[in-house]
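Narrative of accomplishments. A recurring question from our advisory board has been how the design workflow behaves on a single, concrete structure rather than in aggregate. To address it, we present the structure tokens for one chain from the evaluation set, followed by the sequence designed for it. No filtering or post-editing was applied between the two.
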């Protein structure tokens, strides 16, 4: 399969013979997020497509859930009404706009046991000297997202006097019993594991009577979102749109600047989504920008991406000046250096790849991927510098966006973006 190097700035057309045939979606990470009585199946695809999950107690499945939503690259389908303490098989399916279907292999997840039934309100006769013991979980509230160290507190009363209050998680002791108020405990959720958990408190009085509070169900989330599909699109002379996906709904923010110190941040969006685009404006033209993205989920878990790069384009041409001005011969030479002069089509006889040639004013060319990793470096030795989509060891580079960093004979540094496509 051939590859072509496309200069975005010049907007040159790729020959029809070099374009790849239609392909079904390609799956990224597939994950089952288990809930108290169900699960959320999440996955990504490399192209917009629909979302469907087959599931059941065996690899024959028997049930399907379809997400009635526009095609997307981030997918999340909720399965409900599942049996407790059971193993479920599932697979995901996505069909693109051309009708091409991708089906994953078989996967499994386990549902949690049913919450324990509360014990009888009293396990010993009430003391004749006072009211029966009673307890109520005050924090966290029912349905809360729990992350890190969470305060668990209870209100307890007993006419015969309180002997102890014991906190429970999923029917097991959460901490040593407390014998005096305040009945409060700092619960480190890291030991519980992500998912739904049942909290309760047992109060015992001095006469031997005991009572258990109503159960409070909370969801532990100690795992930050997984960031994927980071890219910069709609890049212009003074702006760009940075997009990415997350494995769960999360907010959005971008740090950016001309070094890895960044120095600029986009406003934080509190809207939690799976797929987003953040517009950056007021950028310098013909400049190389570093950026990274940040997303925080509803539990406050923060994910930060690695460093990425994009290059802004030339500013629109203004009035020309004389040779002593900014538009003089040096600027003209810079422009000639950075733009590939032609795009060569493959020679079918020998399979030579398309190549981009830089102009005669190019003194040095370095090509990096969007992570800043160098794949090609050449200096001029009297002949034009060209690139055929291979790295310095001769291997074809993966498909994606690449940036040419060109040093001209006038020692100006200019940039140009490429797309390498299979």
């Amino acid at each position: 399969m051939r590859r072509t190097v496309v200069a975005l700035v010049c907007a040159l057309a790729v020959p029809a013979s070099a374009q790849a045939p239609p392909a079904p979606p390609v799956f990224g990470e597939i994950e089952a997020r288990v809930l108290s009585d169900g699960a959320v199946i999440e996955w990504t695809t490399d192209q917009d497509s629909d979302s469907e999950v087959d599931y059941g107690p065996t690899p024959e499945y028997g049930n399907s859930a379809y997400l009635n939503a526009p095609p997307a690259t981030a997918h999340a389908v909720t399965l409900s009404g599942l049996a407790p303490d059971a193993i479920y098989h599932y697979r995901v399916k996505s069909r693109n706009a051309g009708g091409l279907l991708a089906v994953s292999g078989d996967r499994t997840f386990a549902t949690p046991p049913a919450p324990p039934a509360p014990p009888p309100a009293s396990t010993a006769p009430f003391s004749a000297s006072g009211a029966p013991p009673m307890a109520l979980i005050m924090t966290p509230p029912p349905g809360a997202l729990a992350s890190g160290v969470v305060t668990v507190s209870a209100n307890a009363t007993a006419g015969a006097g309180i002997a102890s209050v014991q906190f429970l998680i999923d029917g097991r002791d959460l901490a040593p019993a407390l014998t005096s108020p305040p009945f409060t405990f700092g619960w480190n959720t890291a030991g519980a594991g992500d998912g739904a958990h049942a909290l309760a408190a047992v109060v015992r009085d001095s006469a031997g009577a005991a009572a258990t509070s109503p159960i409070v169900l909370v969801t532990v989330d100690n795992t930050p979102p997984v960031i994927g599909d980071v890219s910069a699109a709609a890049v212009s002379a003074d702006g760009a749109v940075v997009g990415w996906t997350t494995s769960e709904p999360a907010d959005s923010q971008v740090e950016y600047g001309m070094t890895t110190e960044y120095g600029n941040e986009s406003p934080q969006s509190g809207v939690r989504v799976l797929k987003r685009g953040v517009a950056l404006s007021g950028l310098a033209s013909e400049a190389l920008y570093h950026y990274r993205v940040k997303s925080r989920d509803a539990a406050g878990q923060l994910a930060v991406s690695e460093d990425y790069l994009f290059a802004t384009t030339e500013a629109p041409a203004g009035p020309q000046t004389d040779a002593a001005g900014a538009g003089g011969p040096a600027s003209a030479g810079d422009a000639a250096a950075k733009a590939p002069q032609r795009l060569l089509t493959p020679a079918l006889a020998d399979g030579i790849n398309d190549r981009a040639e830089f102009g005669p004013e190019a003194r040095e060319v370095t090509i990096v991927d969007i992570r800043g990793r160098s794949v090609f470096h050449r200096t001029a030795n009297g002949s034009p510098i060209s690139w055929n989509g291979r790295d310095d060891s001769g291997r074809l580079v993966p498909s994606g966006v690449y940036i040419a960093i060109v040093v001209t004979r006038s020692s100006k540094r200019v940039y140009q973006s490429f797309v390498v496509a299979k």
